[in-house]
Design goal:
The structure is a single chain. Helix 2 packs antiparallel against helix 3 and helix 13 packs across helix 15. The termini are far apart. The radius of gyration is 30 Å and the shape is elongated. By secondary structure, it is an alpha+beta fold. The strands form five sheets. Strands 2, 3, 5, 9, 10, 13, 14, 15, 16 and 17 form a ten-stranded mixed sheet that branches. The structure holds adenosine-5'-triphosphate and magnesium ion (2 copies).
C-alpha cells in the first residue's frame, strides 16, 4: 500500500501561552444556578468534593453526572488539510478558497504534511498510541457550508488512540491545595473544518463563507471521565496550554480555533450510564462550565419529573444561561442511516507512518514521517514548566499555574528574574499581585504594558538594596505606569523617596513621635503588641514612607527600654 503524497508546508509560529479565563474557577456545582421548569434543589449530584454540593436528605436519590468532551482544535498551519489555500482568521469572505475547497468536480485531496506532523506531535504529548496506519473516511451530511456533501474525517482508524490528559484543580482554603486528575483520551482524528454560514437577519438571507472549509482540525475525543463543568473547563484549559506549547494549534477560543462539544448524562451510581445530550460548539471555558452544570441539573429535573432524556444535540444560550435543542443540521443525532453516513474516502490511500526501526531504506525524508523524530522534538509541556518553576524558584504551586495562565507572563517573570537580585518569591509576588493587578484593571495584555521587565527589575533592585521602602516602591510603580520612559531611579530622586540613611535624624523623629504620643508609649510598655506598630506607622507618616520599618522598630525598642 502506498502512502499518500504529502504536501510540505512551513510550521506556523505560535509559542504564546494561553490567556486563561479564570472566571469559572470558583464555579458552583451542578446543583446550583438552575433556572428551568423543575423544582430547585430536590435532588443531588454525586460530585467531586471541590464543588458545592448540597447534602442529600434521607430517602432522596443521589445522581452522578458524567461528562465527555469532543474538542476541535484548528491546526496551526499555513495551508488547509487537503488543499494549498491559505489559512487566515478574519480574511475577506471567500478569499481563501481553492477549487478543491469548493468541491469542483475533478479536484483531488493532497494531504498536508504539517497537519499530520501536528497530529502526531499532539498525540505523543497526550500519551497516545500513534497508529502507524490510519484511514480517511467521508462523513456525509447535507448543509450549505459543506459543498462536497461530506466531511473527510477519520472514523474507522484514527491517527492516535488511548491517551490521557492530566489537569489540576485548586481546592481547599484559598485554593492552596492542588489536586491532579486524569481524563482518558479515546482518540485523536484528523478532519476538515466546514465553511461558515453567515445569517443576515436584515435581509432574511444566509450567506456562505468557505474560507474555513477544509482547514485542518484535530478532534480530540475524551472518555466520559469527568463529572462537572469545572473539571471540563480545567481540562480544556490544560489542553489549550499544551497545544500552544507544542505550536500545533493557536487554540484561541475567542477566534474559534478551539471549540468544544460537551456530552452530558446523569445516572444513579452503580447503574448503567444515562442517555447523553450533546451541547455543541462551546467556545469559551466559562460558557463550557456553565452549560454543563446547567445541563446536568436540567436532566436531573426532567428525570425526577418522570420525563425522558432525549439523545439530542443542544446549544447554549449564553444570554439566558440555559441549553436549548438545536434546530439545524446538528439537531438530529438519529444515526439510523449510519451505514450511509460514513464510507471510506476513495481518493486518499491509508496514511502510513514510520518509526526509526520501520523506516524503509533510502526513503525520501520529505515523503515519510518518522514518529521517533517528532518525539525527539517535543518541547517542554506546561506541567513540566510548572514543576521546574516550583523546583527552581521555590514558588507555590498555585503561583506556577498563574504564571502560565496569562499570555507572555512567564517570559516577563523570567526576564525580571534575570536582571534582578531580588528573591524569586519577591519577584513572583510583584509580578502576580501588583503587575498583573495593574494590567487587569486597565484590561491590557502583558505585551502592552508600559513597564518592561528591565524597569521592574531595576525597581526591585532598589527595594532589595534598601534604597526605598516597599511602600515607596509601590508609589514608583504607579508613577512608572503614568510616565513612560522614566526610570525608577529618576522617579525616586525626583520625588525624594530614598530611605533615610541618617540614623541620628531618624532617632530624633522617633523621639519626637514618642513624646507626642505618651498614651501609645504607655500601651507599648504595658505589652500591647499593636501599640509598637502604631508608633512605627506614625514615624513612617512623618518621614513620608522614607524610613525603613525594621530600622524604626529597632530604634523605638532601644528608646523604649532606656
Ligand atoms: N453516557 C455518556 N454520558 C456522557 N458522555 C458520554 C456518554 N457516552 C459517551 N460519551 C461521550 O460522548 C462523546 C462521543 O464522541 P464521538 O466522537 O465518539 O461520537 P459522536 O458524538 O456520536 O460523533 P460526532 O463526532 O459526530 O459528534 C465522547 O466524548 C464520550 O466520552
Ligand atoms: Mg466526535
Ligand atoms: Mg459528538
Amino acid at each position: 500500500m502506498a502512502a499518500p503524497m504529502l504536501r510540505g508546508c512551513c510550521l506556523g509560529r505560535c509559542w504564546a501561552l494561553a490567556c486563561i479565563d479564570s472566571s469559572s474557577r470558583h464555579g458552583r456545582g451542578a446543583a446550583t444556578g438552575f433556572t428551568s421548569s423543575g423544582k430547585r434543589g430536590q435532588s443531588f449530584v454525586a460530585q467531586q468534593p471541590l464543588l458545592t454540593a448540597q447534602k442529600s436528605r434521607k430517602g432522596e436519590h443521589k445522581w452522578a453526572a458524567v461528562v465527555g468532551l469532543e474538542i476541535h482544535a484548528q491546526i496551526a498551519s499555513n495551508s488547509k488539510l487537503f488543499s494549498g489555500s491559505q489559512v487566515h482568521f478574519a480574511a475577506p469572505p471567500n478569499s481563501l478558497v481553492s477549487f478543491f475547497d469548493a468541491s469542483l468536480p475533478g479536484t483531488l485531496p493532497v494531504l498536508n504534511r504539517r497537519c499530520v506532523e501536528a497530529a502526531v506531535m499532539t498525540g505523543l504529548a497526550l500519551n497516545c498510541h500513534i497508529n502507524k496506519k490510519s484511514l480517511f473516511d467521508r462523513k456525509h451530511y447535507f448543509y450549505a457550508d459543506l459543498p462536497a456533501g461530506y466531511q473527510i474525517t477519520q472514523q474507522r482508524l484514527p491517527i492516535a488512540v488511548n491517551g490521557s490528559l492530566a489537569y489540576s484543580v485548586c481546592v481547599g482554603k484559598k485554593w492552596r491545595q492542588v489536586i491532579t486528575k486524569t481524563v482518558r483520551i479515546k482518540q485523536i482524528q484528523l478532519e476538515q473544518d466546514s465553511g461558515k454560514s453567515l445569517h443576515d437577519e436584515l435581509r432574511s438571507q444566509t450567506l456562505i463563507d468557505l474560507n474555513r472549509a477544509g482547514v485542518g482540525l484535530l478532534e480530540v475525543v475524551l472518555e466520559p471521565d469527568m463529572s462537572c463543568g469545572e473539571e471540563a473547563a480545567t481540562a480544556v484549559r490544560e489542553l489549550q496550554l499544551i497545544l500552544q506549547a507544542l505550536g500545533t494549534s493557536q487554540a484561541n477560543m475567542a477566534e474559534g480555533q478551539l471549540r468544544v462539544d460537551a456530552n452530558i448524562s446523569v445516572h444513579h451510581p452503580g447503574e448503567p450510564l444515562g442517555v447523553r445530550t450533546e451541547v455543541k460548539n462551546l467556545n469559551s471555558a466559562r460558557f463550557l462550565a456553565r452549560a454543563i452544570d446547567y445541563e446536568i441539573q436540567r436532566q436531573i429535573n426532567e428525570l425526577e419529573n418522570g420525563c425522558e432524556i432525549l439523545n439530542e444535540t443542544r446549544s447554549f444560550d449564553y444570554k439566558l444561561g440555559c441549553t436549548v435543542p438545536m434546530r439545524d443540521k446538528e439537531g438530529k443525532q438519529d444515526y439510523r442511516w449510519l451505514l450511509l453516513l460514513f464510507m471510506p474516502e476513495p481518493n486518499l490511500p491509508p496514511l502510513l507512518l514510520y518509526d526509526t526501526a520501520s523506516l524503509p531504506a533510502g526513503a525520501d525524508p520529505q515523503q515519510v514521517i518518522n514518529i521517533d523524530r517528532i518525539q525527539e522534538q517535543l518541547p517542554e509541556l506546561p506541567s513540566e514548566t510548572r514543576e521546574k518553576l516550583i523546583q527552581q524558584y521555590g514558588i507555590l504551586p498555585e503561583h506556577s499555574f498563574a504564571l502560565l495562565n496569562e499570555v507572555g507572563l512567564l517570559e516577563f517573570f523570567q526576564n525580571v528574574i534575570k536582571e534582578t537580585r531580588a528573591e524569586p518569591k519577591k519577584v513572583t509576588s510583584w509580578v502576580l499581585n501588583i503587575f498583573l493587578g495593574f494590567l487587569k484593571q486597565r484590561n491590557l495584555a502583558v505585551n502592552e504594558s508600559p513597564v518592561t521587565p528591565s524597569v521592574l527589575a531595576e525597581l526591585l533592585n532598589l527595594l532589595d538594596r534598601k534604597v526605598i521602602s516597599s511602600a515607596a516602591a509601590k508609589q514608583v510603580f504607579e508613577e512608572l505606569w503614568r510616565s513612560k520612559g522614566k526610570t525608577p531611579s529618576q522617579i525616586v530622586s525626583e520625588r525624594k523617596l530614598e530611605l533615610m540613611q541618617d540614623e541620628e535624624a531618624l532617632e530624633r523623629v522617633c523621639h519626637a513621635v514618642m513624646e507626642g504620643h505618651p498614651q501609645v508609649v504607655m500601651d507599648t510598655k504595658r505589652g500591647n503588641p499593636r501599640a509598637i506598630n502604631k508608633l512605627i506607622g506614625l514615624v513612617r507618616k512623618v518621614t513620608h514612607n522614607r524610613a525603613d520599618p525594621t530600622v524604626i522598630k529597632e530604634i523605638l525598642e532601644k528608646q523604649l527600654s532606656s
